[in-house]
Amino acid sequence: MSRFYGSIQGTKGEATRCGDSKNGIHGHVRGWNLGGMVRMFVNEHGEDVCRIWVTSGSQGGGEHFLGEFTEESLKLLKKVTK
Fold it and tell me: Which domain holds residue 70?
């Protein structure tokens, strides 16, 4: 069983990929000038970690880190948004 699972839908249908605890999973969806990138992995405490960036898309030019989230930070976000 995989620790991580990703899916993407395009004009040719859906594609899925699995990631494990050792290697994690990574995805980058992009247009010409704007994109979004996500990396999931397991940290040294055994927690799932999600890192998110906004990128310059296929043209390149850089990425902007938006944040890192764990299960614990998700619980805190839920408390704040109630």
Answer: 23-80
Taking only the tens place, the pLDDT of each residue in 25-48 is 999 999 999 999 999 999 999 999
Q: Look up the pTM and report it.
A: 0.85
Q: How many structural domains compose the chain? A: 1
Give a yes or no: residue 16 inside a domain: no
Mapping DSSP onto H, E and C, the string for 12-72 reads CEEEEEEEECCCEEEEEEECCCCEEEEEEEECCCCCEEEEEEEECHHHCCCEEEEEEEEHH
- What φ, ψ does residue 80 adopt, rounded to 5°? -70, -35
